[in-house]
Amino acid sequence: MKALLTTLLLFSLLSLSTLQAALPGELDPTFATGSGINGEVYAIARQKDGRILIGGSFTSVQGVPRKSIARLMSNGALDLSFDPGSGANSNVLSLFLQPDGRILMAGSFLSYAGYSCVRLIRLLPDGAVDPSFQLTAGPDGDVAAIRADANGKIYIGGSFHAFGAETRKGVARLNANGTLDS
Q1: Is the pLDDT of residue 59 over 70?
Q2: Contacts of 32 (CB under 8 A, 6+ apart)
Q3: pLDDT band for position 28 (50/70/90)?
């Protein structure tokens, strides 16, 4: 009887410790970011495959140059297959993953990997510029939020007063190709 009680007690303690390790909000010891990120992270987006996009005001991730955008593997390691080149020349404030895997990125930047853009850009899943996003004008201030709907319309919000020559105070809707939806 004593052996049975000891076994039940041990089983209960093991079950309780397993339960406690899985509680929400606790640090996940399997998520290892190595030497970390040398700046602020303002945006996070998780892809369907578990990889994690981060955007912010950093210049390196785990000791590897990554200017304002990077992708981590599901375990926290830097994903070297996502190559942003020279990255964004200023802060990335918002990220949105479209169902087809393309990445909408917004912030205070005016260029990305040597490509001129005005605070908005769409990337292919590997970090390259999406050439189908033809942004010919842009907002006159930072874009802090970006989302898209099922029809491909893109919504932006931020501290801008105009989009190109059109007055748009703080919010605008774009067509899927990056042009302003009048």
Answers
A1: yes
A2: 75, 76, 77
A3: confident
